[in-house]
Amino acid sequence: MKELILRQKQILFFIVAGGLSAVIEIGSFKIFSMYLPNIISNEQNFHGIHYPLSNILSTCCGIISNYFLSIWFVFERGKHSKRREFAYFMIVSFISTLLSLGFFQIFYSFVFKDNINLIVYTLSPEMISKIAAILLVSILNYSIKKKIIFNG
């Protein structure tokens, strides 16, 4: 019973840490996608890739915040050294970033074409695509981080 409660607590903290990291990632994406096209003319469509630099920079902000939130609140230290743990975290995050960028491109190009009005805020297709990509990849992230990186 204690393990079940502990596991549920860990999942809850992972969701909270992931949610905070997602807020940081989505917020920074919004800022980057608003201002980078003014500086870099190809940012909105770089050879068919939509908002590549905004996506990469915002994802880096999300990864760094997620790492610190994960080690502070979610997972106990694993059997690896801090350096190796960080390296594994970055490798998994890099792969996750590639998946997230791919899902973003698919969602933005083929799935989400219209704004969604939430009464107090309207979500653009790029924001909806970013949120959907984050949600999809986060499920994979929890499993891998728990089993491989922070496995105790």
Structure overview:
InterPro entries: GtrA_DPMS_TM (IPR007267). It comes from Chryseobacterium oryctis. This is GtrA family protein. The chain crosses the membrane at residues 12-36, 56-75, 87-107, 127-144. Keywords: Membrane, Transmembrane, Transmembrane helix. The protein has a two-stranded antiparallel ribbon. β1 and β2 (122-123) form a beta hairpin. The chain starts with a helix and ends with a helix. It contains four helices and two strands. It has one domain (2-149). The protein is 76% helix and 3% strand. The longest helix has 38 residues, at 2-39. The chain has helices at residues 2-39, 52-74, 82-111, 125-149; strands at 116-117, 122-123. The protein is globular, with a radius of gyration of 17 Å. By secondary structure, the protein is mainly alpha-helical.
What topology, given as strand order, has the largest sheet?
1-2
Number of strands: 2
CA-atom Rg in angstroms: 17 Å
- Unreliable stretches (pLDDT < 50, length at least 5) are none
Counted up, domains total 1
Helix content: over 70%
Average of per-residue pLDDT values: 81
Reported for the largest beta sheet, the result is: 2 strands, antiparallel
Overview in brief:
The chain has 152 residues and is mainly alpha-helical. It is built from four helices and two strands. A two-stranded antiparallel ribbon has the order 1-2.
What descriptive keywords fit this protein?
membrane; 152 residues; mainly alpha; two-stranded antiparallel ribbon; transmembrane helix; GtrA family protein; single chain; transmembrane
